[in-house]
Design brief:
Organism: Micromonospora sicca
Structural class: alpha+beta
InterPro entries: Cas12f1-like_TNB
Bound molecules: zinc ion
GO molecular function: DNA binding
Shape: globular
Distance between the termini: 46 Å
Protein name: Cas12f1-like TNB domain-containing protein
Keywords: DNA-binding
Number of helices: 13
Length: 478
């Protein structure tokens, strides 16, 4: 498993900066060309490889007009095709869901999923229609990146201990030497992203090299609920990453205040421009409405939130051999509708980061991550299954007459979904509701219901910080 690392340039001079910018600018059209020609069902969707594209371009002379070295455009072609393949894979996730909605027949499902996986969906009318629906034709938006193959760059340390990274420029045998702000040399394929007057060097390292990967996982099975006040609440009632809420609130307040100030400055600049005072308008735009500081602050905030979330995931895996969590792939589809609302944007990003942390930490430390259908897990009472009333962080079950802590209740429900015989990952929302309804009806008519260890679990939800006591108490009770 790979983990991305970023190194930054330190005081890059303007000549080198301009040279790298020019190279990235010329590579933008390479990506656009790949997206336009092969970003559809007849291109990458038909199993076309980047080597074939390179051969075609060499034959028809497409590559000549970009004005960059061969390695630079070839790596860019490979990278753009990988982007398209990712795009295709996320469309397939949607189509898989549609398959589950369409049929309950295991044989039919298996046939369709196999066809989808092997890119043979064009022959099946249902799959073809779904693919056309979910695979929106994309276009290239990347004009600030240079991909450098592993054997095309090198690093050297100067007499003062500074690390320099040398990458190919626009001319053969003319390397651009970039001073880095780190002493750890980037390795493997590099992605240079030019942002705000400096270079970000993105590269991947093997996760097994990281110290945190050496720690073994625990041996329990733990359900987790993802939140915004705390990153994770587990089914033992313990909260992890409790500084998350504070970080998100302060960032949201800061962004709102900053956006308000920027709007005011922008209107002053516009007024000045209307008056004919273009010098003033330009001064404000350049000095007060820049993006360099803004983008760096945003990156710093993201780094802090990620640290909090990853630490929380590590705490859970410390005790878990199996982590049961909500499947979050669904929520990414709605990303476009979030608009300018600061809170919603932060929340969506946080949710994605939490999902990533659970996947990454589980994989590195050898615990299993089980995704379950989370429909109604935050509303149903984990003891009787009826839908309760939510008041802030409390869930009131009128049937049991008990108030649960909502996130702990949800984590227990999520844990129980892992062994649920009726509710599978892709069971539709309304079907889940019906199943829960049927179970509580059965309960009412006094038929036996699977409810083996609810006594322990119930106590955990009531006393989230005393989970260690629950075992001894159980023995006393019985
Ligand atoms: Zn209840």
């Amino acid at each position: 498993m790979k983990v991305t690392r970023i190194a930054y340039s330190a005081r890059l001079n303007s000549g080198k900066c301009a040279a790298l910018w020019e190279q990235a600018r010329r590579l933008g059209p390479v990506r656009s060309e790949v997206w336009q020609r092969y970003g559809s069902i007849s291109g990458v969707g038909s199993g076309l490889r980047d080597r074939q594209v390179r051969d075609r371009w060499l034959v028809d002379g497409t590559h000549v007009r970009f004005g960059v070295l061969a390695n630079a455009w070839k790596e860019t072609v490979r990278d753009a095709m990988a982007d398209i393949a990712t795009n295709l894979a996320s469309a397939k996730v949607q189509v898989r869901r549609a398959v589950f909605r369409r049929t309950g027949d295991p044989g039919e499902r298996k046939r369709m999923l196999a066809a989808l996986a092997a890119d043979r969906w064009a022959g099946d009318p249902f799959l073809a229609r779904q693919m056309r629906k979910h695979w929106k034709r994309g276009r290239n938006r990347t004009h600030d990146q240079i991909v450098v193959r592993a054997d095309q760059h090198n690093t050297a340390t100067d007499g003062r201990g500074r690390l320099w990274l040398a990458v190919p420029g626009l001319q053969r045998r003319q390397m651009v030497r970039i001073p880095l702000s780190t002493t750890v040399a980037p390795t493997g394929t590099l992605r240079l992203i030019l942002r705000g007057g400096r270079v970000e060097v993105h590269y991947q390292i093997d996760a097994s090299q990281m110290r945190s990967s050496q720690r073994p996982c625990g041996d329990a099975t733990v359900g987790v609920d993802k939140g915004y006040t705390e990153a994770l609440t587990d089914s033992d009632g313990v909260r992890h990453g409790s500084r998350l809420g504070e970080l998100l609130t302060s960032e949201s307040d800061r962004l709102k205040e900053r956006n308000r100030r920027r709007a005011k400055l922008r209107s002053i600049a516009n007024t000045a421009a209307l008056r004919g005072d273009h010098a003033k308008a330009r001064r404000i735009t350049v000095n007060n409405l820049g993006t360099v500081k803004r983008d760096r602050q945003a990156a710093r905030h993201r780094a802090r939130v990620r640290t909090e979330i990853f630490t929380a995931a590590h705490r859970v895996v410390d005790k878990a051999a199996t982590v049961v969590a909500e499947d979050l792939t669904k929520s990414f589809a709605g990303r476009k509708t979030l608009g300018r609302n600061v809170n919603r944007r932060l929340a969506a990003w946080t949710k994605g980061a939490t999902a990533e942390a659970l996947t990454s930490v589980s994989e590195r430390r050898g615990s299993a991550l089980v995704h379950v259908n989370a429909a109604y897990t935050s509303q149903a009472c984990h003891r009787c299954g009826r839908l309760g009333r939510r008041h802030g962080d409390r869930l009131h079950c009128t049937s049991c007459g008990v108030v649960w802590q909502a996130d702990v209740n949800a984590a227990i429900n999520i844990l129980q979904r892992a062994g649920d015989p009726d509710i599978a990952l892709h069971t539709p929302h309304h079907a889940v509701r019906q199943i829960l309804q049927d179970r509580t009806d059965r309960h009412r008519t006094r038929l036996p219901v699977q409810d083996s260890n609810s006594a322990t679990i119930e106590r955990r939800a009531n006393h989230p910080n005393r989970s260690a006591m629950s075992n001894s108490r159980k023995q006393v009770d019985r």
